[in-house]
Structures are given as structure tokens and as C-alpha cells.
Amino acid sequence: MPARRSWGRGSRRRSGGFVGGFALTWAGFSAASAAAGQMQADGVAASIQLWAGGLVGAFMLLSVSVMFFYPLTEERFREITEEITARRATEV
Question: In total, how many domains does the chain have?
């Protein structure tokens, strides 16, 4: 079980790094200019802010849509809770 958690955590970090790097590249950020202490091109800061807000908004809409369409009723929730409680009781 710990190996799966570690793999999942690493996958999320890699995905986050990829998305962040992609967004910075798309916004026009230049690592070479930053390393040299030079100013970024005009509009880079605004593009980064739009990317950051857009990504948060997109993931928020995605999560809300998943929650809206997920078929979980109060009755099903109780069934799942009882099943988990029964499993935990048998594990001990």
C-alpha cells in the first residue's frame, strides 16, 4: 500500500510540474532572461496571472461537474459507510 501512495504522490508532482512549466512557456516566460537578471517581455506577468486563474477555474468547474453528475444518493452513502465499517471490524 505505501508504494502505491508514493507512486501516486510522485505522479501528481510530475503532472503539476508539467502543467506549470507548460503554462510558463505558453505565457512567454524566459528562464534565460530570469537567470541573467533581465526583465521579462511585456505581458508575461499578465499571461501568468491569466493562466493561474484559468487553471484554477477550469479545475473548479471540472470538480463541480463530477460532483453534480456522480450518482451518490443518501441511501447509497449509508450503504458504503456500513460496508466500510464492516470491513474495518473484520480487519481487527
Answer: 1
